[in-house]
Amino acid sequence: SLEKGVELDHHWVEFDDVRYHIQVSMKNPHVLLLSVSLPTPSSETIFVCGLPFGAIEAIKAAYGNLVQILDPPRDGFNLTLKINLSKLPANQGTESF
């Protein structure tokens, strides 16, 4: 919950050397920064601006105005998303299955 704000600055690495960096600051608790670094692609992979072809369009289509793609991304990363948490729909993720 945003009312119980906590500073967050965390790095982690997933299999295949995908690196993540997530940050939330109490100075602006409604904004989450998520940076992603991808491993070096194979020679047959088409990369545009450091990302697989079509990635930017897919992010925009999936998340709309919830995210802003920062250009350039943070140093050492292929992509940095600025996510406005205040734009999340109310009660998102609280439904029972």
UniProtKB/TrEMBL annotation:
Main location: cytoplasm
Name of the protein this chain belongs to: Arp2/3 complex 34 kDa subunit
InterPro entries with a match to the protein in the record: ARPC2, ARPC2/4
GO cellular component: Arp2/3 protein complex
Keywords: Actin-binding, Cytoplasm, Cytoskeleton
Keyword Cell cycle recorded: no
Sample GO molecular function, one term: actin filament binding
GO biological process, any: actin filament polymerization
Compartment(s) of residence: Cytoplasm, Cytoskeleton
Organism phylogeny: Eukaryota, Viridiplantae, Streptophyta, Embryophyta, Tracheophyta
Family of the protein in this entry: Belongs to the ARPC2 family.
Record has Cytoplasm as a keyword: yes
